[in-house]
Amino acid sequence: MERKIIKTNDGSVTIHLPEWNEQYHSKHGAVQEARHVFLKMGLHFYLENFQTEEISILEIGFGTGLNAFLTFLESERLSKKIRYTGVEAYPVSSEEVLQLNYPEASQATNKEAIFQKIHTVPWETISQISEFFSLEKQQKKFDEIEDITTFDIIYFDAFGARVQPELWTEDIFSIMYRALKINGVLVTYAAKGSVRRAMIATGFQVEKLPGPPGKREMLRAVKKQAQTS
Ligand SMILES: C[S@@+](CC[C@H](N)C(=O)[O-])C[C@H]1O[C@@H](n2cnc3c(N)ncnc32)[C@H](O)[C@@H]1O
Question: N or C: which end of the chain has fewer CB within 10 A?
Fold first, then answer.
């Protein structure tokens, strides 16, 4: 499938897939969207409500590594230990990585080497990226995830239900539910009624929240009790 690097409205780039008319991030601003949906509504919400020495995060759709990089920056800023796992079936190429301007677009040009390290460390291995941030990239499909009560937070960042409806179903959300600890939180940029209903049917408590600039709403789902089936 053809892939093009394009600039979004906050100056950060993203990957555009013309055939699907779909992007890896919001055209209104990739960095802006990631900070709002995953950091503010996910990581910061979790830290404000629950105490843990170390936070474990699962990212569904590692893609460009933007969410991993911004989360690394937060781990430094907060001196908080984060264990980050990114699942991705189709990694971006090294040529594409060179065109991603995320350190500059997130005012962290001094962390360019860390952004490169996030991409060059081997897959299927836990790598210590910094004192506070470890990363394991796993190359597999989302329906192959088998973790049980492992993660505090899931960043659910798959392509939209318009192009990949099979990734927004009860089957996939059950896998996410199983992978979360009690009080674990899943955040996503999506706000569709069908997505919300699939999350509720899985057992999640779901809240609609204000979305990032350019998007009215997003969803946050919390696992309050153990899976029954
Ligand atoms: C919206 S993009 C990812 C955005 C990513 N979080 C980022 O910041 O770049 C969705 C990602 O899911 C990956 N993907 C799509 N279908 C998948 C599947 N069935 N299993 C695993 N990864 C998949 C794509 O290759 C793509 O990288």
Answer: C
Alpha carbon of 141 to ligand 1 centroid (Å) = 9
Contact 167, 73 (CB under 8 A): no
Range 133-146 burial, b when 16+ CB lie within 10 A, else e: bbbbbbeeebeebe
Phi, psi of 103 (to 5 degrees): -60, -45
92 CA closest ligand 1 atom index: 27
Q: What is the enclosing helix (H) or strand (E) of 69?
A: helix 66-78
Q: Mean pLDDT per 10-residue run, the chain (229 residues)?
A: 97 98 98 98 97 95 98 98 98 98 98 98 98 98 98 98 97 98 98 98 98 96 86
Query: What pTM value is reported for the model?
Result: 0.98
* Pairing of the two strands 180-188 and 217-222: antiparallel
Ligand 1 atom closest to 67 (CA):
8
Q: How far apart are CA 158 and CA 165, in angstroms?
A: 10
Pocket of ligand 1 (CB under 6 A): 24, 61, 63-64, 66-67, 87-90, 141-142, 157-159, 164
**Tokens found for residue 123:** 């897959």
- Amino acid identity of 82? I
For ligand 1, the distance from its centroid to the CA atom of residue 49, given in whole angstroms, is 29
